[in-house]
């Protein structure tokens, strides 16, 4: 996939994490704080609809920030057997609200 300003993160958020509004807001704020380390973050979206519940989409202002975030986040361990998967996501699909791919 070619570079994009949108990064999709998998294996970061589970359905259980999203059970309460407070938990959702806490996770969203943590993701924003962490995402801003790599550049100007325009938006963070957590997919709440199946399939793909819990996938995180980070929209950056420019390609360089998105590339830096993808490289830094991909492969970070979460627990004993879970790793963050960070990949580019097509901007046109994101703009149309298609988050289930």
TrEMBL record:
Keywords in alphabetical order: mRNA processing, mRNA splicing, RNA-binding
Coiled-coil residues: none
GO molecular function: RNA binding
Signal peptide: none
Biological processes per GO annotation: mRNA processing; RNA splicing
Transmembrane domains' residue ranges: none
Listed name of the protein: Splicing factor U2af large subunit B
Annotated source species: Cardamine amara subsp. amara
């Amino acid at each position: 996939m070619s570079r994009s300003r949108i990064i999709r993160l998998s294996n970061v958020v589970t359905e259980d994490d999203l059970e309460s509004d407070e938990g959702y807001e806490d996770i969203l704020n943590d993701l924003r704080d962490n995402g801003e380390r790599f550049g100007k973050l325009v938006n963070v979206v957590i997919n709440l609809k199946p399939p793909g519940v819990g996938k995180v989409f980070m929209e950056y202002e420019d390609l360089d920030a998105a590339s830096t975030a993808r490289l830094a986040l991909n492969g970070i361990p979460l627990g004993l057997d879970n790793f963050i998967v960070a990949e580019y996501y097509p901007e046109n699909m994101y703009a149309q609200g298609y988050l289930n791919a």
